[in-house]
Design a protein that fits this description.
The complex is a heterodimer of chains A (about 450) and B (about 80). Chain A is an alpha/beta fold and about 450 residues long. Chain A contains 15 helices and 15 strands. Chain B is globular and about 30 Å long. The model of chain B has no long low-confidence stretch (mean pLDDT about 95). The chains are: A alpha/beta (about 450), B mainly alpha (about 80). At the A-B interface, helix 4 of A face helix 3 of B.
Chain lengths: ~450, ~80
């Protein structure tokens, strides 16, 4: 039993079994656009946010291109005070901008410092790596130099894993669960599923959920050393992220934040909120590093179980899915992923729904990826289109049977109804969400 | 260094940390950092570091603990720089 003070202010008129969760706000800070309108337009127009970065070349990275939200320093002061920015790294700033945008997009005002907390509103904003820029640039060097005192007061809040969600709690006076989850590249998707479950359970009325990741080269260095980043397109950045392609040679690192405002349907309708889409269901699991799964590769059985679990939770058949926004990073795993989708949906390759990868335009946002790609999926549902999955004109030979379902250029799909979005992360962890256009 | 010059620089250091704009507008030697300006107590160590860098002085932890008002900070700096 919850203490009385923790009960949501809103008392749902519907039973737990009938409770539905909808999306009433979106916040996105992506390499190819900030804000719902700019991001939606960039997706429609197939505009890439991948650029060459001189600092990566200077640091002798094999991959010298990446996705970084642009001009953030020019508008971050509209969201955060000087004192707040003083204690924030890129990951925290991106999370805050995405969350505040989602909050205001849902029709709420950023509160002042007086008054009560919003007891019925919380946030689960994940991150994959977190504040490693602060650790690498400040904490380590100062401590090694014997200057612990010079660290000041802001180290802990910048390097604690929950730093990104903690700042948001203060900005928006959130009084429900506020937490940061982490499951590598599944982080943002996992956050949204956890938030959905919390609302379904009646423990919150609305939750901000998604993921964020900074753009530090210290985050990307480990992946570069693993040789899982594409180092063949440094002179052609917009062609570097090549999911589904025969010439895919690794993913392109990205960054930013994607945040959804999840809300119980009855609450959203009672306040007359705009409803972008409904979350019909979702599933999370892990392959246990068995049956071909490992720290870095997915167990195909677990991937299929996760997708089937999401379908079951949503109460739909695989053939009901109109489009797949895949994990699809541009590694050897892409053909395996598409095959797993076909098996899990129980749909033959020739009849598969539209398949595409948002990473082809923005790179792999790591902990932000699930959030960013869920925002993309919801915008597609809301506006009735599927964006082009660029740079796969040379489709991988193992995907020949699926050629008809791969979307190369943006198409209008006015009757687009259901999108499945999945993320698969290091650690053999999986997440899959089923979004439906709201009727 | 003239007291007024020290005062002006201290106000500049405090500005980003002050949450009460009204108190900042009427700031004086008697203004309390935490009670009036509503500076987060955790940030006092950052203000001391800024003072050290700005005036090229070292402030001991004991001296830092005595700083409650703008006047306390000015007095400490003037003593260390003259």
């Amino acid at each position: 039993m919850w203490p009385e003070a923790l009960f949501p202010v809103w008392e749902s008129p519907v039973s737990k079994a009938e409770r539905r969760v909808v999306i009433t706000g979106l916040g996105v800070l992506a390499p190819n656009g900030h804000g719902v309108d700019a991001f939606s337009a960039a997706l429609r127009e197939g505009r890439s946010g991948i650029r060459h970065h001189a600092h990566l070349e200077e640091a002798k990275f094999g991959c010298q291109v990446g996705g970084i939200p642009e001009n953030v320093e020019q508008f971050q002061g509209q969201y955060l005070t000087d004192e707040e920015l003083f204690a924030m790294n890129a990951n925290m700033i991106y999370a805050a901008i995405g969350s505040i945008d989602a909050w205001t997009d849902a029709g709420f005002e950023v509160p002042g410092l007086d008054g009560e907390a919003h007891w019925d509103a919380g946030a689960i904003i994940g991150t994959g790596i977190g504040g490693i820029d602060t650790i690498s640039e400040t904490l380590g060097p100062q401590v090694d130099a014997g200057k612990v005192r010079r660290l000041g007061s802001t180290m802990v809040e910048q390097i604690m894993s929950s730093g990104n969600s903690a700042r948001i709690a203060g900005k928006l006076a959130l009084g429900n669960q506020v937490s940061t989850n982490s499951s590598a590249c599944n982080t943002g998707t996992e956050a949204i599923i956890q938030a959905m479950q919390r609302i379904r359970n009646g423990h919150a009325v609305r939750m901000l959920a998604g993921g964020s990741e900074g753009h530090s080269h210290y985050i990307w260095a480990g992946f570069d050393a693993m040789r899982v980043l594409n180092r063949t397109k440094n002179d052609d950045p917009e062609a570097a992220s090549r999911p589904l392609s025969a010439s895919a040679a690794g993913f392109i690192p990205g960054s930013g934040a994607g945040v959804l405002m999840l809300e119980e349907l009855e609450s959203a309708q009672a306040r007359g909120a705009r409803i972008y889409a409904e979350i019909l269901g979702g599933a999370l699991n892990c392959g246990g590093h068995r049956q071909g799964g490992s720290m870095t590769a997915p167990n195909p059985d677990s991937v299929q179980r996760c997708i089937r679990g999401a379908l079951s939770d949503a109460g739909i058949a695989g053939s009901d899915v109109n489009a797949i926004n895949g994990h699809l990073t541009a590694t050897f795993a892409d053909p395996h992923e598409v095959n797993n989708w076909s098996k899990a949906l129980e749909v033959a390759p020739g009849n598969m729904p539209h398949v595409h990868s948002t990473k082809s335009l923005i790179g792999h946002g790591l902990g932000a990826a699930g959030g960013l790609e869920c925002v993309a999926s919801i915008l597609e549902l809301h506006h009735g289109f599927v964006h082009g999955s660029v740079n796969c004109e040379d489709l991988h030979e193992d995907l020949t049977d699926f050629a008809a379902c791969v979307v190369h250029e943006t198409i209008d799909v006015p009757d687009l109804s259901i999108i499945a979005k999945a993320s698969f992360g290091f650690g053999d962890v999986n997440g899959c969400i089923i979004f439906k256009k709201f009727d | 260094m003239e007291n007024q010059e020290v005062f002006d620089k201290v106000v500049g250091i405090l500005k980003p940390f002050a949450k009460n704009e009204e108190a900042l507008g009427g700031i004086s030697l008697e203004t309390s950092l935490m009670k009036d300006l509503e500076v987060n107590s955790a940030r006092l160590v950052d203000i001391v570091l800024e003072i050290e860098d700005t005036f090229d002085i070292e402030v001991s932890d004991d001296d830092a603990d005595q700083v409650n008002t703008v006047g306390d900070a000015v007095k400490l700096i003037v003593a260390a720089t003259t």
